Amino acid sequence: MAVADKFKGIIDFLTSGFEGKEEDIYGTMMGEETTETDDYPTQGNYALNPSYTTQEEKTQNSKVVTHPNFRGYEVIVCEPRSYEDSISIVKHLKDRKTIVLNLHLLDKEQALRIVDFLCGATHALSGSQQKIGDSVFIFTPVNVALSAESQKSKFLRDALWNQPQA
Q1: pLDDT band for position 103 (50/70/90)?
Q2: Mean pLDDT of 6-13
Q3: Structural domain range at position 109
Q4: What distances in angstroms separate CA 110 from CA 79, 106, 134, one per listed residue?
Q5: Does the residue 108 lie in any domain?
Q6: pTM over 0.70
Q7: Cα(32)–Cα(154) distance, rounded to whole angstroms?
């Protein structure tokens, strides 16, 4: 009995907000009550003089919309003169700009430190890096795909495909 009383109490609580509203909803649906906010006159459940509005169709050939903050892809060529310049290079990388790093102005030790630092930062930002020449590197952010084929891989590919058929 106690469980049935608790169950009935829960049902009564949940349905208490709906008491007495059924007649109003039924009366409105049957057309007995009319409100002043009607846009057009009705008779019963039928609209006598409906008013229609149409939207102008915008015809555009392109369905691609550019993002308002998109400024395009930017490539920055950097020639650092000291290790301290690497911090500003990482800021460019965080702003999703591609960096071409030319280290010809630095000695080997400083160049190695800068490359190590930028490789770590690029990896942390899910970017890509690649050596493209003597003391020249490219670092790309995550939104830029980097693909390159080295001379060695070209030679191996050509050697495999150009073998005589037996």
Answers
A1: very high
A2: 78
A3: 75-144
A4: 12, 6, 15
A5: yes
A6: no
A7: 85
